[in-house]
């Protein structure tokens, strides 16, 4: 799950000529849901959004308060394009969760946000609609969040096959012969002992 969090002076969402939602000072959050997201991803993103310290305190100390501390509003906007990958110059969205599933997931996300904060402070766009989003970014301040599960999946896994390939590459450079070299002195000593025993038995 991904979230692009923007500190705003004001933000709004319209569909055509209809104003759907608007907020004053607070956060505008674009939310992307991947096909592999789980409740753990949702829990992480909810917690981070609500506790992210991007606001000044009364003494103008920077990065001191969260949106909850300031009692500000949050405008959430579903944004499947956050999981865009490029095929040449064309965007591809196959990593995004399918529309029907993602709508249920996104609505549950909103419920969790309202449960963890104040319900009337959480505003929303219109899922699946062609929206016009107006954002007056304050700063500007923009923070990108990604749930740890997705971060882990984005890293290349060190599989057994990968480790074996790495070892074979080293072997090609000659380092694979080290274990055999370390064993040679033992083999030499055993040959010497065997030879001495043979000489003793013949005498």
Automatic annotation (TrEMBL):
InterPro entries: Daa-tRNA_deacyls_DTD, DTD-like_sf. It comes from Branchiostoma floridae (Florida lancelet). It catalyses: a D-aminoacyl-tRNA + H2O = a tRNA + a D-alpha-amino acid + H(+); glycyl-tRNA(Ala) + H2O = tRNA(Ala) + glycine + H(+). This is D-aminoacyl-tRNA deacylase. Residues 145-203 are annotated as: Disordered. GO terms for cellular component: cytoplasm. The keyword RNA-binding applies. GO terms for biological process: tRNA metabolic process. The keyword RNA-binding applies. Belongs to the DTD family. Gene3D superfamilies: D-tyrosyl-tRNA(Tyr) deacylase. Pfam families: Tyr_Deacylase. Residues 193-203 have a biased composition (Polar residues). It is found in: Cytoplasm. Its main location: cytoplasm. It is an enzyme of class 3 (hydrolase). Its EC number is 3.1.1.96. SUPFAM superfamilies: DTD-like. Residues 154-171 have a biased composition (Basic and acidic residues). GO terms for molecular function: D-tyrosyl-tRNA(Tyr) deacylase activity; tRNA binding. Keywords: Cytoplasm, Hydrolase, RNA-binding, tRNA-binding.
């Amino acid at each position: 799950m991904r979230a692009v969090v923007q500190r705003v002076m004001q933000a709004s969402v319209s569909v055509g000529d209809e104003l759907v939602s608007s907020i004053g000072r607070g956060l505008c959050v674009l939310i992307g849901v991947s096909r592999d997201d789980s409740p753990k991803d949702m829990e992480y993103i909810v917690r981070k959004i609500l506790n992210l310290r991007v606001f000044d305190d009364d003494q103008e100390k920077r990065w001191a308060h969260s949106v909850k501390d300031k009692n500000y509003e949050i405008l959430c906007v579903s944004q499947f394009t956050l999981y865009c990958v490029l095929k040449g110059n064309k965007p591809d969205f196959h990593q995004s969760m399918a529309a029907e599933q993602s709508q249920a997931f996104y609505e549950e996300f909103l419920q969790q946000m309202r449960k963890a904060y104040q319900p009337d402070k959480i505003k929303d766009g219109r899922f699946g609609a062609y929206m016009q989003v107006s954002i007056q970014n304050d700063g500007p301040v923009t923070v990108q969040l990604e749930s740890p599960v997705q971060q882990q999946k984005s890293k290349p896994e060190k599989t057994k096959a990968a480790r074996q390939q790495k070892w074979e590459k080293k072997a090609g450079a000659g380092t694979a012969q080290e274990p055999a070299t370390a064993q040679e002195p033992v083999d030499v000593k055993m040959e010497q002992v065997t030879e001495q025993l043979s000489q003793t038995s013949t005498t």
